[in-house]
Amino acid sequence: MLRQKTTPLLIGIFLSLSVLIPMLVAGYSSLQQAQEAQARREYELAAASYAHAAKILFWRQDLFEQAGISAARAGQFADAVGYFEQGANFSEEGWVWLCTSHIQLGDFPSAISICAEGTSNYDSTSLYELLAFAYRSQKDWESERLALGNQTRLDSTDAYAAYRLGLLLTLYSPEDAVPELTRASTLNPEVDSAVQTLRAALAVSNQPSDPCMQTVIIGQAFGLVQDWELAKTAFEQAIQLDQENAEAWAWLGEAKQQTSGEGNVELDRALLLDHTSVNVRALRGLYWSRQGKYEQMLAEYLLAAGIEPENPRWQVNIGEAYTKLGDLVAALTAYQRAVELAPTQADYWRLLAIFCAENNVQVEEVGMPAAQQALTLAPNDPAMLDALGYVYLSTGRYANAETSLMQVVELFPEYFPAHIHLAMTYLAQGNQPAAFNSLTYVRDAGGAGIYAEAAQQLLDKYFR
Fold first, then answer.
1. CA-CA-CA-CA torsion sign (43, 46, 50, 52)
2. What radius of gyration, in Å, describes the C-alpha atoms of the chain?
3. Are 138 and 118 in contact (CB under 8 A)?
4. Averaged pLDDT for residues 312-337
5. Are 252 and 263 in contact (CB under 8 A)?
6. Of the listed ranges 207-211, 337-341, 423-427, the one predicted with least confidence
7. Which of 80, 328, 411, 451 is most buried, taking the most CB atoms under 10 A from its CB?
């Protein structure tokens, strides 16, 4: 009787094992396949294999995480999120890839939530870096500052994080900004120029007792270092401090032009508050220039010059406006008036020389002497030597132009306008290979900005 009772039980166990063992074999086979694919960096195959193994080896909660990591590495971010949602108890790497996947999908609110949850489990440099990026994408500067503070606490060698934190401290905690900016400059000398601009602004902003103007100065510095989003925030803060400050409104208009193409409402508000402010007039002139309305541009600068008749800056702006209107005689008169007002300032002589060269106006009589005077006043300034080379180029003195411009690029290789002018000289001489080398140097140089664009345009024109 005992044998009769145990036989069905044994049969049941056998049948269960006959089903379970192949499943386990399949599960571990998929796991092995996943690991091998991952080792070969075949992440798409690894993700699918990890997911298949996870469904069979259900007690291995880490397998869906591995599937998510592999999918994210393969660039399949939506699949990665789906895999992660089936897992639990992630490692630091899992949290990083889950947050990264949400960022790549453009779901910044979820990325912020995920990263914040991850940092409650791991004090992670990578998670704080991703959190700072997500907050920055949402323009939540204060939260970005806090995340960067944690990131730099854990990693003091990241130059960008130090610089960005210094920027935000300049806005929210100026007294703490200088050490962070200095550290950024030490880590990466390429940001030294921007750091010096910000440090100077911090020093100057301490001089006015008016908190509104202190904030305007900080905003102007952000504009100088090309962070117009932070500049806009600074000007908005300035207006909150003083709704009647015309310059704050005008600068907010400029920041909005730089970030969204708008700004006319703020500029009109600034004019209503103070129609005698030269800075308001100057920013309005810049606005009209961008709109291609050069008569309005000229009117603004003429009014500014009427308020400050001894300021050569307005004469240069007037000359630029006349040039755009096609009145080169009046433009020349304005540029010459600028050097009369500031005869010892090299840059105004340079601008006069460049105007003559670009517009073929009295180049020999006025432009060449102006370029030579500029170089006499500032012999170590690459801009002055470049201007002389450009004037030589415009008069067809290619050998002289090449000599001057070669001197600039040898002494100041990062002065990109000289490379452009040297390439133009080579083109005028028919030296295509040398021109190509100069243009590709600028195109591929980091930080070349608008000059890289100019180089590419010339490459497209002459080397297609």
1. positive
2. 32
3. no
4. 98
5. yes
6. 207-211
7. 80
Residue 207 has what DSSP assignment?
Answer: S
Q: How far is CA 299 from the centre of its chain?
A: 33
Q: Kindly indicate the confidence band of residue 18, based on its pLDDT and cuts at 50, 70 and 90.
A: very low
Query: Which residues fall within 8 angstroms of residue 270, CB to CB, at 6 or more apart?
Result: 246, 247, 249, 250, 253, 277, 280, 283, 284
Whole-angstrom Cα distance, residue 232 to residue 244? 17
Is residue 60 classed as helix, strand or coil in its secondary structure? coil
Confidence check: pLDDT of 222 > 70: yes
DSSP of 310-369, one letter per residue?
A: T-HHHHHHHHHHHHHHT-HHHHHHHHHHHHHH-TT-HHHHHHHHHHHHHHTSSIIIIIHH
Tokens 């897992």 -> residue: 87
The dihedral of CA 350, 351, 353, 357: what is its sign? Answer: positive
Helix (H/G/I), strand (E/B), else coil: 435: helix
* Neighbouring C-beta atoms of residue 207, cutoff 10 Å: 9
CA proximity to 419, closest of 451, 378, 391, 388: 451
Residue whose structure tokens are 């060269």: 357
Mean pLDDT of 132-141: 96
Query: Rounded to whole angstroms, how far apart are CA atoms 273 and 257?
Result: 20
Give the pair of three-digit tokens for residue 37.
Answer: 């694919």
Least confident of 40-54, 209-223, 362-376: 40-54
What is the per-residue DSSP string for 80-108?
HHHHHHT--S--HHHHHHHHHHHHHTT-H
Report the interhelical angle of 382-394 vs 346-359 (nearest 10°): 20
Helices (H), 138-210: 141-154, 159-172, 177-187, 192-205
CB 199 within 8 A of CB 217: no
Give the C-alpha separation, 389 to 438, whole Å.
Answer: 15
